[in-house]
Amino acid sequence: MDKEFRDGTVNGVTLGQTQATPFTVPSPHLQMKSLYLRMKRMWTPAHAPIALLLLTLPLTLYASIWPEITRVAVAWLLLDIAVFYAVFLWARTERRLRLSAFLLVMAGLALALVAPFGVDWIEDAKGFLNFSPIYAAIPRLINERIHPNILAGALAAVLPLAMSLMFPPGTEDRGSPILRRLLPVVCGLSFAVMLAVLILTKSRGTWLGTAVGLGIVLICRWPRLRWPALALVALLLIAGLIIGPARVAQALAAAPVVGGWEGRLELWSRALEAIADYPFTGIGMGTFDHVIPLRYPYVLLAGAELAVPHAHNLFLQVAVDLGLPGLIAFVALLGLVLAAAVQSARAWAGDQALALQVTGLAAGLVAMLVHGLLDAASWGSKPAVFIWALMGLIMAHQAVSLHRRTPSPAAWESEQG
Questions:
Q1: What is the pLDDT of residue 16?
Q2: Per-residue pLDDT tens for 177-189?
Q3: CB atoms near residue 312 (< 10 Å)
Q4: How far apart are CA 54 and CA 77, in angstroms?
Q5: How far is Cα 225 from Cα 98, in angstroms, rounded to an integer?
Q6: What pTM does this model have?
Q7: ∠306-78-51 over CA atoms, to 5°?
Q8: DSSP for 331-379?
């Protein structure tokens, strides 16, 4: 001991020097920098529109004359937002991005396998496609009543993602060879099942949206297809002009309850009247089929009031439910998510598989928006959770691709010593 004191050391530590310990308190500057990096990793542009959406919920509850219905609808929207953030916060590595996409496809497959046993199939023996024998062969095993358009809207959002996983770029070399070969097969089979169920729904708007979404994935996967795709679109436009725009519009808008184009126009006019009367609060989420026939009686749709639960247009329905502030928030959220998808696809230039994956996610959102021009099945329904999970995964892509260029808090702290 005396020798150690004479050498100016105690237990091997030079006197006058500070030994670093796990309990060393970093400087305030380092603490603030670390906090900033941690907060930056949790930041997303979607915070602002979602916050505005949340602010509209007390207003819609206040305005509703059927609060018991609105409370349930609000609860489902809160669950959707919670799913958005759960996916966004969990999928913060490239491995989790890949796994999340695969799980979303598997969820779509599960929906396609289970939901048909509870769907109220629309039988129309005189229609373009007669699936009555197939409908009759499907037993009703689920008490939940599922509308075909709602099921179709959820499947349309997932199908482009499944296609993007079916055709991984040849440069993808991550994971075991067996899994790399098995993933496209599983996603291909899932795609086939979901597409078959989608066809059974006979939802024309969803078919159109799905075609657009799948086309986006195919063109991004094989850019040479863009010219044949443009030629196909031109041929379809010419065919539409020959057949007649009015007949084409009538065919797309035809539905058993609302009839054709005239019925939808009446629905939309009633929705616009409600928005004009309740621009800031909406009429109350989930009360469309109660309030609209009472305050704005139908003419063409008289007698079918309870069979028309929404405005058959996504944007009108959001405005009717939450008012114009809610519509602004929702449109802003969609715009930010699509912009994030484009930014992420460019950022993943060195990883073609992830670039194609985020393209599939964005294409699913585009399919939902195309379908939303004629329906509102992706808003206020239980399968709408697929849309919010999809948006959460897109924002996670943006966060991961952005923070690849930003040091993690732990790495930055270690560098500071």
A1: 46
A2: 777 788 899 999 9
A3: 25
A4: 9
A5: 26
A6: 0.85
A7: 120
A8: HHHHHHHHHHHHHHHHHGGG-HHHHHHHHHHHHHHHHHHHHHTT--TTS
